[in-house]
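Continuing the series of single-chain predictions for the mutant panel. This is the parent chain; the variants come on the following pages.
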Amino acid sequence: MLKVYRVWTMLLHVLIGVQFFLAGYGSLGTGSPDESFSLHIMNGRLIAAVALLGILFAALARSGGKLTGLAAATFGLVVLQSLIAVVSVAGTVPGQIVFGFHAINALMIMGVAEASGRLAKRLIADRGTAEKAVEPAAA
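Parent structure:
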């Protein structure tokens, strides 16, 4: 199950990369902001669903609380991302300042998701080494 989680984090990374593209696409789009950012919003919802399922996969992998905690932190930051977008008031200086944290939080999501993927990769390698160490003793 740990390998499934690792692949799942790779999918999450791809979606985050697409999200950055869609943010740029929406910022230069014509028409209303709701229309320009519709793909960005839809992909953000998909990221939330993938991050939520990531918590389940991390827990099922039985890899300890750190990996599950990182998966939960990723989902929590994704939820915070939506809250930042909702709370900021467009066209006001305080709203723009609050919305500036949307970009910073996106970088934090990337970082925590990356840390989660690296931990999963290390745990997979550790499990492989432990299995190889047990085989000669049994033979």
